[in-house]
Amino acid sequence: MAFRLKGLWLSRRGLVSVRWISSQRIEPTGKTSPGRALFGDTVVVDNIPYQTDHLTNVTPNILAKIGRNLHRTKHHPLYLIRKRIENYFYSHFLNRRGNPLFSVNDSISPVVTLEQNFDSLLVPEDHVSRAPSDSYYINSSYMLRAHTSAHQCELMRSGLDAFLVMGDVYRRDEIDATHYPVFHQVEGVRLFNQHEQLFQKVRDSTGLNIFEQGGKQTPDKQATHSMETAKLLEHSLKTTLMNLARHLFGQDVKARWVDQYFPFTHPSWELEVHHEGEWLEVLGCGIMKQEILYSAGTGDQVGWAFGLGLERLAMKLYSIPDIRLFWSNDSGFLNQFKDCDPNTNVTYKPVSIYPQCTNDLSFWLPSSADFAFSPNDFYDVVRNEGGDLVEQVFLVDEFVHPKTQRTSHCYRIIYRHMERTLTQEEVNVIHRHIEEQVVKLLGGEIR
């Protein structure tokens, strides 16, 4: 599964113009949504038209990223990392005929239903990831996938029992050198049956069963799994992923397992490696909850899953300092990876450091009940107007008027072009457009 690592699912307030009720019902307020204000009644996503409604919060800037497929662009650093992972699974896991055991699925559309993204993975109805302030919704039925796990059940239903899913995922987030609303994930799933796989290396498996009746869930296992199943699955999962970590970071890498919670696995762990003097979260993983396998029609099997982010790995392994660089067409960046194979150790060398332009923007937050302000709403306005010219946005001041009790935010927006020097005049034009959209879409009042 494409797991969200700790500290990244942050509790946030609801999207402007809608009121968060639950995962199944989001109550419109009567105010035109930002999505309809941008697109009208119809938005075209991946060449398919969709009706907008009160939940629509995708933006033109985000939709423009669909189809770029950086993970499939030859010699791109994300492609190199992806191939390194793919080669590990191709070389270490073969079926009886000597062919790769894991299939690779890297061209599935990022448009999914809410059921695919949340319900099929047992994500609770009140989980923060469902909030419009955290995810990109096309309308009340469709969204841009927040993780590659959204395709897990459909692939298992198709008969696959060992597969990798690679693709772009979309989440509303802050703006800085390590966060971007689009990034890329690799998900891995492996299923086992009792007779041919799970117990095949046990010297005497007589009497062993993958399931037990009347069992109880403990920190070490699910209620339906026997203890032997839980331990064999854990050993298989951790051995696979430790060897993957050595494949990526070197045979002498130090690593540790950290207990974790995910809605779709139990037990669950994160793998951390010691890299350049610090512990780095590499992936999340766990034993797949049996309810998911039942719903996918594979309830007679058990399995494990893991997920990792390609940008996180590429930034560490190639010393890439800014996540925006992955989207750059600058030859000075791309040519550093042009003649590399997946196993080449590359250290990125900055081509040039262009100066920053810094502008502050202060506005009163909307006082109307029709608007429930979230910082992510403001970040999306900034992204949509400034694109990748915006390097960082952060809150520098929050003020509550002692008489009116109105709240004011002051954000510092740092602009920097990746390939040339920006002029202050260029930045001022973008900044004025951001101010206009804050008033129009967010109901703010510029100070």
Structure explained in plain terms:
There is one protein chain. By secondary structure, this protein is an alpha+beta fold. 25% of the residues lie in helices and 25% in strands. The strands form five sheets. The protein has a seven-stranded mixed sheet with strand order 5-8-9-13-12-11-10. Residues 4-26 have low confidence and may be disordered.
Features:
single chain, 447 residues, alpha+beta, 4-stranded antiparallel β-sheet, 17 strands
Largest sheet: 7 strands, mixed
Tally of DSSP helical segments? 12
The helix/strand series, from N terminus to C terminus, equals EEHEEHHEEHEHEEHHEEEHEHHEHEEHE
Beta strand count: 17
- How much of the residues is beta strand, in percent? 15-25%
Strand order in space, largest sheet: 5-8-9-13-12-11-10
**Percentage of helical residues?**
25-40%
Stretches with pLDDT under 50, minimum 5 residues:
4-26
Radius of gyration (Å): 23 Å
The mean pLDDT is 89
Shape: globular
Structural class, from helix and strand content?
alpha+beta
Distance N terminus to C terminus? 45 Å
Secondary structure layout:
Elements: E1 18-20, E2 26-28, H1 34-39, E3 42-45, E4 48-51, H2 60-63, H3 77-92, E5 103-105, E6 111-113, H4 114-117, E7 142-144, H5 152-157, E8 162-170, E9 182-192, H6 194-198, H7 227-249, E10 255-262, E11 265-275, E12 278-288, H8 290-295, E13 302-309, H9 310-317, H10 331-334, E14 357-364, H11 375-386, E15 390-400, E16 407-415, H12 424-442, E17 445-446
Parallel strand pairs: 5-8
Antiparallel strand pairs: 1-2, 3-4, 6-7, 8-9, 9-13, 10-11, 11-12, 12-13, 14-16, 14-17, 15-16
Helix pairs in contact: 3-9, 11-12
